[in-house]
Amino acid sequence: MESTFSSPAEAALQREASAPGQLTPPEDLHRVYELERVAEFVRDLGCQRVALQFPDQLLGDAGAVAARLEGTTGSKMFILGDTAYGSCCVDVLGAEQAGAQALVHFGPACLSPPARPLPVAFVLGQRSVHLELCAKAFEAQNPDSKSPVVLLSEPACAHALEALATLLRPRYLDLLVSSPALPLPVGSCSPEPEPLERFGRRFPLAPGRCLEEYGAFYVGGSAASADLDLDPDLSRLLLGWAPGQPFFTCCPDTGQTQDEGVRAGRLRARRHYLVERAKDARVVGLLAGTLGVARHREALAHLRNLAQAAGKRSYVLALGRPTPPKLANFPEVDVFVLLACPLGALAPQPSGGFFRPVLAPCELEAACNPAWPPAGLAPHLTHYADLLPGSPFHVPLPPPDSELWDTPDVSLITGELRPPPVWKPSDDPGCLALTLRPQLELAESSPAALYLSSRSWQGLQPRLGQTPVTGAVSGRRGIAIAYEDEGSS
C-alpha cells in the first residue's frame, strides 16, 4: 500500500537535492556564454569577487562556467541560483550578501534598472537564426517595400538582427532595427540623441517619427509551440504595440510566420476584463513581487494612493512568487496587483489558476484613475515606472472637486451602477482605522475584519483565563507520513 500511493518515510529523509547535469557541450561553452566578453568585463573592473546569476534551466552549466572564468580571470566566482521573485531580474541583494563587486546575469533578462548601483553584465545567449529563411518570410509578409517595419526578436536572437537587416535593406527603405536596452558604460556620452527606449529595447527613430507608425516583425519562438503564455516578452510587445499596425512572428529555425493580430486582440480583451474586475473590487491586495528593481517603494506608495482615492482598501503582501495556495489564504481580497518587473507582471499563471485575478499595475491605474488614459497613449504599459512622476506617461489624480469623480459608471460584469468613490486625503480624520461600537469596544473597521466576522469558523479561540494551566508535555516525533507512536500500520 505504501509503495503504491506514497514514498517510504526513509526516502523522504534521505533524498538529496542536486542540480541537473551539464547541458552545453564543453567545446560550446565559450560561444554560448560569451566567456571572453565576460572575462574582459571582470578584468576591466578589477573585481576580485564576482556573482554569477543563472536561471533554474541553466544551473547545470553553472559549475563549468564558473571554473573557466576563475581560471581565466583569477577572481572568485559565486554562483547565484534563481531568485525568490524572478530569474529575469538582477539579484543585487544576493550579490551583496556574497560581497560581490560585480554581477553577471545569464539567460533572458527584463533589463530593469536595479535598486542599488552595481556593475552588471548581461549574457542573453546566442540562438542560431536561419537568415535566408527569415528574409524570405519577411518579404512574403511585407510586399510593400515602402511600408515602415521594425525588426524585433527574443533576447537570444538579438545578435542576428543586424545581419538580417543587411539582407533586407537593398529593397526596404524604411526598416528599423531594435536592440536590447543594455545598460550603458559608466561615463559614456554620445553626441547623437538618445534612442527611444520601450519594451526593454532601443529604437533609433529618425527625427519626427514615432513608433506607432511602424509594423513589427518578431524573430523568435518555436513553430512547435503556439502557447502565447509561455513567452511574457512577446505578450508585452503585443499588448503595447499600436493596435492598427501589423505584427508578425517568425520562427528562427524554419522561417514559419504567423499573424499575431488575433492573439493580440484576445490579450487586450483579457486585460480590459481585469480592469473591470478592479473597478468592482472593494479590497485590493498589493503583492510585492520585487525588491531589486529601482523605484519599487515609490510604485508601492503610488498604488496605495490610487486604491485609497478610488474608495478601496489595500493590503501589502510579501509572499515571494505568487502561487494559488498562497493567495487562497486571503479570501477577503477581491483582486491582487503584482508589483514586479515587466516580465514578472505578465508571467504565465500556474496550472489550476488563481482564486482571484492577478493584475498588472497599469490595470489598477486604469481602474482607479478617472483621468486615465491620456490621449495618444499606448493601450498597455508594461513597467510600473511608466506610471510614476517623471515619466511622459504619468497622469496625476484629479483633485477631489473634479467632475471626473462624479461621472456615472456601469459595471460591464454585473450590470450595476457603481457608486462614485469618496476621495479622502490621507490626513482626513474621517478615514481612521478605528471606530467606536455601542458597547464602548474598539474594533477595526476594515473589509478584512467584516469578512472574518461573517465566517462560521474564525480560527482558534484564545479563551483567556478559561483554560487551566498544565505542564509541558512531549509532542509527537517523526514526520507526518509516519510518526513514531503510530507503529508500522
Walkthrough of the structure:
The structure is a single chain. With 489 residues, this protein is of the alpha/beta class. Helix content is 26%, strand content 16%. It is built from 15 helices and 22 strands. The strands form 7 sheets. It has a 5-stranded mixed β-sheet, covered by helices on one side. A 4-stranded parallel β-sheet has the order 2-1-3-4. Strands 14-13-15-16 form a 4-stranded parallel β-sheet. Helix 8 links the parallel strand 5 (149-153) and strand 6 (175-177). Helix 7 packs across helix 8, helix 10 (261-280) packs across helix 14 (361-368) and helix 11 runs parallel beside helix 14 (361-368). The longest helix has 20 residues, at 261-280.
- Count of individual beta strands: 22
Strand content: 15-25%
The strand line-up of the biggest sheet is 6-5-10-11-12
Helix content: 25-40%
The major pleated sheet works out as:
5 strands, mixed
Nearest-angstrom radius of gyration?
A: 27 Å
From the N-terminal CA to the C-terminal CA, the straight-line distance is: 10 Å
How many H/I helices?
15
| Mean model confidence by pLDDT | 82
- Spans with pLDDT under 50 lasting ≥5 residues? 1-6, 425-444
* Classification by helices and strands: alpha/beta
Shape: globular
Quick structural summary:
By secondary structure, the protein is of the alpha/beta class.
Structural descriptors:
single chain, 489 residues, alpha/beta, five-stranded mixed β-sheet, four-stranded parallel β-sheet, 15 helices, globular, disordered N terminus
